[in-house]
Write a structure and sequence with these properties.
Elements: E1 2-12, E2 18-28, E3 32-36, H1 43-50, E4 58-63, E5 66-67, H2 73-80, E6 83-86, H3 90-93, H4 100-111, H5 125-135, H6 152-164, E7 170-174, H7 182-199, E8 202-207, H8 210-216, E9 219-224, E10 227-233, H9 244-251
Organism: Lysinibacillus macroides
Keywords: ATP-binding, Nucleotide-binding, Transport
GO molecular function, one term: ATP binding
Length: about 250
């Protein structure tokens, strides 16, 4: 069943640059959909459009069959609690002045009146933070530290814990392992797979790393210069039918 449907979406800037050009795709519930392409191809711009951080020029975005491009006020507020994002640089995504426990509780406090959690429970702040840290395989002792006092891999796990804290339906993963070493990358990818299955999450996994996308995703989209140029199931990655640009990416993977 479709969770997210994008139809003929176009995003351009005053400079005349077309970042996303007439792009259409569907993401199904419970799926991890990969979006791969070189830097500057429009992947992150697309993510900002889906989150309503950036306005679109034309086209439609449907979430659970409801159009979201015209949402405002309370409707937009409700939509955003269903969709979270994990960025490439975890340290930049965390408030350096807040302890880990306060960063983790922030999303819950923001949306508490609208939440009906089924996996986590907010009996107390300390218990809630402990649950979240355990979910991303971090010790509860990190709760009282500041972001700069923990490693990059731990920082990214904290941002993942924050993203799942309000049990969203969809998480946009925007290059979530790009700033990590190889060992931390593998561990985070394994964790994300486990969380998707445990919490019944859906992911849009954005990356330039075809190996990571191939590990994580059931289907893969390939973007180049704002266009969607290839779309296929993971098992068909090495088929001869693949677009020449996809084959080029495979050759360096």
């Amino acid at each position: 069943m479709s969770l997210l449907t994008v139809k003929e979406l176009t995003k351009s800037y005053q400079s005349g640059k077309v970042a996303v050009d007439y792009l259409s795709f569907t993401l199904n519930k419970g799926e991890c959909l990969g979006l791969v392409g070189e830097s500057g191809c429009g992947k992150s711009t697309l993510a900002r459009c889906l989150l309503r951080i950036e306005p679109i020029n034309s086209g439609s975005i449907y979430f659970n069959n409801e159009p979201i491009e015209s949402l405002n006020g309370r409707q937009l507020y409700s939509y955003r609690k269903k969709l979270q994002i994990v960025f490439q640089n975890p340290l930049a995504a965390l408030n350096p002045k807040l302890k880990i426990k306060d960063s983790l509780v922030d999303p819950y406090l923001e949306y508490a009146k609208e939440l009906n959690l089924s996996y986590f429970s907010f009996t107390s702040k300390a218990a809630f933070v402990k649950q979240l840290l355990e979910a991303v395989e971090l010790p509860s002792s990190l709760a009282d530290r500041y972001p700069h006092e923990i490693s990059g891999g731990q920082q990214q796990r904290v941002t993942i814990a924050r993203a799942i804290s309000i049990e969203p339906e969809l998480i946009v993963l925007d290059e979530p392992t790009a700033s990590l070493d190889v060992i931390s990358q593998r561990a985070v990818l394994t964790l994300l797979t486990e969380l998707r299955e445990t919490l019944n999450l859906s992911y849009l996994f954005i990356s330039h790393d075809l190996a990571a996308v191939n590990q994580m995703c059931q289907r893969i989209l390939v973007m180049k210069e704002g266009h969607l140029i290839d779309e296929f199931n993971r098992r068909d990655l090495f088929d001869n039918e693949r677009h020449a640009y996809t084959k080029e990416l495979i050759s360096i993977y």
